[in-house]
Amino acid sequence: MLFWKKRTAENQQQYIQQALKDNVNFSTDTSLGYPASKLDPKVFSTEAPFLKDAPLLQVFVNNPNNIGCHTCGTSEKAFKGTQEIEVDVLNMIAVDIFKAPPGGFDGYIAPGGTEANIQALWMYRNYFINEYNAKAQEIAIVASEDTHYSIAKGANLLMLEWLKIPVDENNRSIDENVLEGIILEARSRGKKYFITVANMGTTMFGSVDDPDTYSSIYDRHSIVYRLHIDGAYGGFVYPFSNPDSRINFNNPNISSVTIDAHKMLQAPYGTGIFICRKGLIQNTLTKEAEYVEGMDLTLCGSRPGVNAVAVWMILSTYGPHGWFEKISVLQMRTSWFCKVLQEKGIPYFREPYMNIVTINAAFVTDEIAARFDLVPQKHDPSNLWYKVVVMDHVEIEHLTALLNTLNTVTVLL
Ligand SMILES: *Cc1c(COP(=O)(O)O)cnc(C)c1O
């Protein structure tokens, strides 16, 4: 670990207070030019005594704006402190978790996984236009049918065709021959550039695509492509549960990744993470963003500096070993749940390194689904699956209560 280490609460507090000192202080500094200030003090007190021991809330009321991208070029001077915390936390994630070479990546804390995914699609579309003189209709998005709907949103916004790759109903994996057929058919229709999204944990099943399935087909046919990993859900799970994971920047075919901190990491909403290899993010430069010091290479514009601090605090509190331990406990709980399902003869899907279990809907009544708040794959009668996500708050007692109701197997057969 080059960047990620465990820190005490006192150490975190000092570090964060220093960052606030490095930012503009709207209470004491003369700052006339920004359409920005701290939170309205008539409504949100900056002086409340409990703020003293609550560094995250201090940053929250100071309300820094981490607008722009801080891994390259210059940035707004006014929020230098919280920008540095952002770079620090991106280093922990990109270098220590996803094996990017130090200094070899760009990225930012996006408002969520949706934006991070759209940022990736936007970046690659422009990359193909800028570097290959591609026309929009020559570019396609490739991703499985289990892919999150943010890819459909991005395809719609960017007016790109999405080649939706079917998966096996039971093991949720892509058939290489079917994939090859779809790619070659698209090529015969004039598609030349393929923006590919491989999932590291789909939202519904937790299934993980093998990125090599894609790259081997592209390489075999000398097809130009770029590969993005959607780890919005699995980004803080899979690299820890599977020590042999190759879904990271050690794989030269992978050039970007999305990770959500507001899912498994339990950070406040508004904390998606976008990371890409150096040399790519310039493709989303908006030249018209002249009033922003440095460059705006992001989709969103203004964004809260406090979110970077929240992610930094969570990772610094656990440290790498603490986080590994937490994921290991969730894995054990998930495995136990699957073992009992198996003993009961209830069919389910589980990706071995993930903490989502998707149960065959034939074994779950509407009443059970409602009582336990199980999420269906589809909100209509054609639904075939219900999922259980083994989060921190989902304990053995809850799982036992559910398992005790799932005793209908002999009745149904
Ligand atoms: C949740 C999720 C997203 C979208 O993330 P938001 O943070 O809700 O915008 C994208 N991809 C996957 C796999 C997800 O689970």
Q: What does it look like?
A:
- The protein has helices at residues 9-22, 55-62, 80-97, 113-132, 149-158, 176-188, 211-220, 238-241, 305-344, 366-371, 396-405, 409-412; strands spanning 105-110, 139-144, 161-165, 193-199, 224-231, 254-260, 272-277, 348-349, 356-360, 375-376, 385-389.
- With 413 residues, it is α/β, with parallel strands linked by helices.
- It has 2 domains: 80-317, Aspartate Aminotransferase, domain 2 (3-Layer(aba) Sandwich), CATH 3.40.640; 320-412, Aspartate Aminotransferase, domain 1.
- The strands form 2 sheets. A 7-stranded mixed β-sheet has the order 1-7-6-5-4-2-3, with helices on both faces.
- The radius of gyration is 23 Å and the shape is globular.
- The structure holds pyridoxal-5'-phosphate (PLP).
- Pyridoxal-5'-phosphate is lined by residues 112-114, 117, 148, 150, 199, 202-203, 230, 232-233, 260, 272.
- Residues 112-114, 117, 148, 150, 199, 202-203, 230, 232-233, 260, 272 line the site of pyridoxal-5'-phosphate.
Q: What composes the largest sheet?
A: 7 strands, mixed
What binds here, in terms of ligands, is:
pyridoxal-5'-phosphate
CATH class of the largest domain: Alpha Beta
- Proportion of beta-strand residues: 5-15%
Alpha plus pi helix count: 12
Total number of strands: 11
The tally of structural domains comes to 2
Mean pLDDT metric: 94
Radius of gyration from the alpha-carbon trace, in angstroms? 23 Å
How would the blueprint of this fold be written?
Layout: H1 9-22, H2 55-62, H3 80-97, E1 105-110, H4 113-132, E2 139-144, H5 149-158, E3 161-165, H6 176-188, E4 193-199, H7 211-220, E5 224-231, H8 238-241, E6 254-260, E7 272-277, H9 305-344, E8 348-349, E9 356-360, H10 366-371, E10 375-376, E11 385-389, H11 396-405, H12 409-412
Parallel strand pairs: 2-3, 2-4, 4-5, 5-6
Antiparallel strand pairs: 1-7, 6-7, 8-9, 9-11, 10-11
Helix pairs in contact: 1-2, 1-3, 2-9, 3-9, 4-5, 9-11
Pyridoxal-5'-phosphate binds at residues 112-114, 117, 148, 150, 199, 202-203, 230, 232-233, 260, 272.
GO molecular function: carbon-carbon lyase activity; pyridoxal phosphate binding; transaminase activity
InterPro entries: GrpII_AminoAcid_Decarb, PyrdxlP-dep_de-COase, PyrdxlP-dep_Trfase, PyrdxlP-dep_Trfase_major, PyrdxlP-dep_Trfase_small
Modified residues (N6-(pyridoxal phosphate)lysine): 263
